[in-house]
Design a protein that fits this description.
CATH architecture of the domain at 79-105 and 326-429: Alpha-Beta Complex
Helix content: 10-25%
Strand content: 25-35%
Oligomer: single chain
CATH superfamily of the domain at 79-105 and 326-429: endopeptidase domain like (from Nostoc punctiforme)
Structural class: alpha+beta
Number of strands: 25
Shape: globular
Distance between the termini: 42 Å
Number of helices: 7
C-alpha cells in the first residue's frame, strides 16, 4: 500500500440530521463487567473520514444462490448494469398490521438530533477519494471481473481510496476490504470531496472493550447495554442541555428509574456525556471512553458462501445467508415486514426464513423465546443473535459467518452488516437443526 500523503481540509458550515426513536427503560442486566468514569471535557477528534477499519472480532464464550449485479440499486428497479434487482417474496407490506418489534418512534423536539451551527473542519487524508453512488451497495470483487469472487460490499455513501482505474474498473481500499469495483458507480476527486461534506456523519467510536452505556447520563442510571471496542455509533446529541434532558425524561423515563439517580449531580455533569443511537433506540456514554469524529461509511467484508455445501456450511444455511445479503441497504421501517419496501429487525429475519419455509414469530422477544440457545462457539451462518435493553430483548440479527451479522438496524442505516459483538448478545439461537 502506498503512503497516504495528500491532505485536504474542508470546512463544513453545518451538518444536520434527525432520528426518530422510541425508548424503554428496564431493569439492569446482571453480570455486566467494566466501568465508566466521567471525565471533564473532551478533545474533539476530527479523524480520517475515509479509512476506518472493520473489526470482525472473535467469537467469545457466552452462556446459555442468486446471481447479483455488481450494484444493487433501489429495490425492484432495473439494475444499473442491466440486471434486475432482487425483489423477494416477503408478503405483508410496510404498513402491515402485524405487531411491531418495539414502541413506535415519535418525531418531536426531544428526539430530533441536535443541529451543529459551528464551523467544523473535516480532515480528509487520502490519495484519491471515491464515494459509492448507489442506493444500496456495490460489490467489491477480488479481480476486475463480474465473474470474480466477491470479497466485500461498498455500501451507500461509503468512502474509499482509489489506487488506479483501468478498463472501467477501479482498484480500491475501504476499511479492511481491498478489491475492484466498477468505476461508473463511484463519485471521484473534487465531486467526492463536495459530497463528503454532505454525507459524513458524526460518530462516537468506543475506545475500550466491554463499555457499559446508560439509560441516562449518570453512572447511577440503569445499564442499557455493553458495547464492543472500536465500534462506531452515530452521535444523536453531543451537547446535552438540561431542558432537552428534562423533556426526554418526561417523555420516556419512568419515575422509579429517576429515583436511583442523583438528579442535581447528573445535571451538573452533562458536559461529560454524549447521547448515541444504538439501532432504533438511544443510550448515554461518558465522553472519556469515546472518540468523536466525522466519518464516511466504509466497506464491509462479506464473502460469498457456496450454496452447494462446498464451503463447509450446509446448502440451506448458505442459501438463507446469501438471500438475506441481497437486501443489504434496503430501508428500515418501524413495524414493517417487507424486505424491499421496509422492515424492522424481526420482520427482516421472519421474512428471510419464511422464504425458505420456516415460520418465525413476529417480534425479537418472541423469536428469542421460540428457539433453544447455543454457545457462541457453536454459532453457524443462519443462526440468530439477540440483543437487549437491560433484560428486555429488543433486537435480532442473523449471523453470516466470519464474526459478522446482517440486520435491519435503524432508519438511518437500513439493513446493514455489523460485527456480531458491536453490542453484547444475550442469546444466540438455532433455527435450522442440521
Amino acid at each position: 500500500m502506498r503512503n497516504i500523503s495528500k491532505i485536504k481540509k474542508i470546512t463544513v458550515v453545518s451538518i444536520t440530521g434527525a432520528l426518530a426513536i422510541s425508548w424503554c427503560i428496564t431493569s439492569v442486566r446482571a453480570g455486566m463487567i467494566a466501568t465508566e468514569k466521567p471525565l471533564a471535557g473532551i478533545n474533539l477528534s476530527l479523524d480520517k473520514l475515509v479509512v476506518a477499519e472493520v473489526q470482525t472480532g472473535a467469537i467469545l464464550p457466552l452462556s446459555g444462490s442468486q446471481t447479483q449485479a455488481d450494484v444493487q440499486p433501489v429495490a425492484e428497479m432495473p439494475g444499473a448494469d442491466g440486471m434486475a434487482a432482487v425483489s423477494g417474496t416477503e408478503g405483508a407490506p410496510a404498513d402491515s398490521a402485524l405487531p411491531a418489534d418495539a414502541s413506535a418512534p415519535v418525531v418531536d423536539d426531544v428526539d430530533a438530533a441536535e443541529e451543529i451551527d459551528e464551523h467544523v473542519k473535516l480532515n480528509l487524508n487520502y490519495d484519491r477519494l471515491g464515494i459509492a453512488k448507489v442506493d444500496t451497495y456495490l460489490n467489491v470483487r477480488k479481480k476486475p471481473s463480474t465473474d470474480s469472487k466477491i470479497v466485500g460490499k461498498l455500501i451507500k455513501h461509503a468512502g474509499c481510496h482509489i489506487y488506479k482505474e483501468k478498463k472501467g474498473w477501479a482498484k480500491i481500499v475501504s476499511g479492511k476490504v481491498t478489491g475492484y469495483v466498477k468505476s461508473e458507480y463511484l463519485v471521484m476527486d473534487e465531486k467526492a470531496e463536495d459530497m463528503a461534506m454532505k454525507v459524513g456523519k458524526k460518530m462516537a467510536t468506543i475506545l475500550t472493550s466491554g463499555l457499559r452505556v446508560r439509560a441516562l447520563p449518570s453512572t447511577d442510571a440503569a445499564i442499557y447495554d455493553v458495547l464492543g471496542q472500536d465500534e462506531d455509533f452515530e452521535v444523536h446529541r453531543e451537547h446535552i442541555k438540561k431542558d432537552w434532558l428534562d423533556k426526554f425524561i418526561q417523555k420516556h423515563i419512568k419515575k422509579k428509574q429517576i429515583k436511583r439517580v442523583d438528579y442535581d449531580a447528573m445535571i451538573n455533569d452533562l458536559d461529560n456525556w454524549v447521547c448515541i443511537a444504538i439501532d432504533n433506540e438511544y443510550a448515554f456514554v461518558s465522553k472519556e471512553y469515546v472518540e468523536i469524529s466525522y466519518k464516511l461509511n466504509r466497506a464491509v467484508a462479506a464473502g460469498e458462501l457456496a450454496t452447494d455445501g462446498s464451503s463447509g456450511v450446509s446448502s440451506t444455511r448458505a442459501s438463507i445467508v446469501e438471500y438475506a445479503k441481497q437486501f443489504l441497504g434496503n430501508r428500515y421501517v418501524y413495524g414493517g415486514t417487507s424486505l424491499t419496501n421496509g422492515t424492522d429487525c424481526s420482520g427482516f429475519t421472519m421474512r428471510v426464513y419464511q422464504h425458505f419455509g420456516y415460520g418465525l414469530p413476529r417480534t425479537s422477544g418472541s423469536q428469542a423465546a421460540a428457539f433453544t440457545g447455543i454457545k457462541s462457539s457453536e454459532a453457524r451462518p443462519g443462526d440468530l443473535f439477540f440483543y437487549a435493553n437491560g433484560g428486555r430483548v429488543n433486537h435480532v440479527a442473523m449471523y453470516i459467518g466470519g464474526g459478522m451479522i446482517i440486520h435491519a438496524s435503524n432508519p438511518t442505516t437500513g439493513i446493514k452488516i455489523s460485527n456480531a459483538y458491536y453490542r453484547s448478545p444475550v442469546k444466540i439461537a438455532r433455527v435450522i437443526n442440521d
